[in-house]
Input
Amino acid sequence: MDFKRILKPQYYLLAILFLLVLGFRLFMVFQTPNFNYDAYFTLRQVENIKQTGLPLYEDPLSYGGKSQLFAPLNYYILAVFSFIFPLDMVGKILPNIFASLIVVLAYFFTLKSVKDPKVSLIIAFMAGFVPILFFDINNITVNYLAILLIFAIIYCMTRINEKKYTDYSLILMFLLVLTTPLAFLLIIGFLFYLIYLKLENQEIEIKEIEIILFFVFLTFWINLLIYKKAFATHGLLIIWQNAPLKFLSNLFSQLTFIEAFYTISIIPLILGVYSIYHAFQNQQNKSVMLLTGFLTGTFILVWFKLLDLVTGLVFLSVTLVILSAFSMKGFVSFIEKTRISKYENLIIGVLLVLFVVSAIIPSYLMIKNRIHQVPSSQDINVFIAASQITPKNAMIAATVEEGNLLAYYANRKNIADINFLLTPNINQRVGDIDTIYKTRFETEGVGIMNNYGAKYLAVTSYAQAKYGITEPFYVSDTACFTLLYRSNQSKIYELKCKKR
Output
């Protein structure tokens, strides 16, 4: 073992930086005991794996009973750790460890590219505090693991002529395909990379072609096995996960233009774009071309609304940060050749202060804004109570966003949740739920609930805020509705009458 290499001072600094980012993320995420609404589907899958060894592909609660389609690796990783630690703790900590490891990956990626430990540490620091990486901090999202795998594959592709990195790239590709359909994003990035090589008259190595073709075949084959039924049912609509129109519009309007701009951060944006310009004009660096190909593919998918805005911004941001290393290296080299070289550390310090102002402060503000966008305790209490006061086969009407929360805590069927695949007439179903809460006509609300077989109605603080109501107008009819349970302002009602 090469102890001299392990004991290099920059590795200590890298370890401290990793712990700093992880500590910051964990401090913020533990400000609330709950997860956001999307996370409860993941928790159900992990618990089912622990009990049966298999994910919940046939879900008896979602939409009253339906098939679920997804790549399973992320759920198995969470399940393994949940045998050692409590699941709530695993859900809080493990995704944030994955997010913090982006710091380590960015360091070694840039160190290989620019051969400068100081620049690599600066880029690692930037990668750890890109604002958009804090957007979904309270979700057990697969995106953090996907980022690690995708950029690890890109790193291995830059060292493809080294035998062990060829093997690593193949293993990582297999893991990526079993983790997320975002593997298709990397395929498009590789396509633009090959186009750029051709346009710049750069040599395309046979090994690169072979590995890319293998990855294309593997991705299409595995995803066809997983999503075959969805392809047959939805056709091209599978790209948007069969999401209803109102949810699709929300996916691309989660951030305003100004918010999207500052979530990337101005420093990486300027330095990253300049790196691309300089590389194509002068150096024709293949590492830059590979990253630029991925950047181009991601940008086009976001532009044409084939990839949701937040996921797209996450990948754009990390790519720009890594590309910034090439500009940063040129900037540092320029300073060292001038009379102001003795002020090098001061100048870099000023640059880092600008990054703190333009990135870390927005990161903190974004977390403060989103950290409490989680189910309230009173809403959770309502669903826990529903598990005790309703029949086991009961259907409960709740908002779409609360569908997975209902299934997790109440263990009861929902009318709809955010897993839209394989659901016919999804726009009508989502519209019917809106009508249940907004209509002033008892016959309409009761009729919809009867059509779906829902005998109970959850009126949570979330539903009240979403629809601007205290409760549906018609539940005051005591001949038709009985208040079963109340936790502060959140309530659950039993429907006793049929359509009249």
Q: What stands out?
A: The longest strand covers residues 481-487. The CA atoms of residues 81 and 90 lie 7 Å apart.
